[in-house]
Design goal:
Layout: E1 3-5, E2 8-10, H1 16-45, E3 51-61, E4 64-73, E5 79-86, E6 89-90, E7 103-105, E8 111-113, E9 118-126, E10 139-146, E11 151-157
Antiparallel strand pairs: 1-2, 3-4, 4-9, 5-6, 5-8, 5-10, 7-9, 10-11
């Protein structure tokens, strides 16, 4: 029921200050909801793969070297390692053990590496690969190639 005061009709309602507080609170609530929603969309579409070579070592046995690599996937998606290259030449055949005149690895098939997971891979290098002579003190470039098109390179000195 309206009130009358000296001929002016007054109505009951909320003050302008309270109305402003309600509008600001509603705006903040909607903004937070939109930010959470956009954050969920962003993390879904921004997955990436990144493999780090945590450590590498070299051992020698009868003129052949074994290069040991510890790898960790520090990215947010699975990385699948599909190829190994030594000095920019693809490893000829997957298998275990060093083969005279060849380079091999213990990676017998594609190696999936989940986010946060670690694995160890070995690369076997013969001292007489493709007619070239490798010797102690030579730097060898080992490159792991993933199905996502990324390359992860380790440079190691033969002992």
């Amino acid at each position: 029921m309206p009130y009358r005061c000296r001929g002016i009709q007054l109505r009951k309602g909320i003050s302008a200050t309270i109305a402003a507080v309600i509008i600001i609170a509603a705006t903040i609530t909607v903004s937070v909801a939109v930010a959470i929603w956009m954050g969920g969309i962003t993390t879904t579409y921004t997955k990436f793969e990144k493999v780090q070579i945590v450590s590498a070592s070299c051992t020698k046995n009868a003129g052949n070297w074994t290069l040991s690599f510890n790898l960790k996937n520090t990215g947010t998606s699975t990385s699948t390692l599909i190829e190994v290259f030594v000095n920019e030449v693809e490893v000829d055949a997957y298998g275990s053990g060093a083969v005279a005149g060849s380079w091999t690895t213990n990676m017998t098939q594609a190696q999936p590496l989940e986010s946060g997971a670690s694995t160890s891979l070995k690369v076997y290098v013969s001292g007489t690969k493709a007619g070239s002579s490798l010797s102690s003190g030579t730097m060898v470039n080992v490159r792991f190639h993933s199905a996502g098109g990324m390359d992860y390179v380790g440079l190691l000195e033969l002992i």
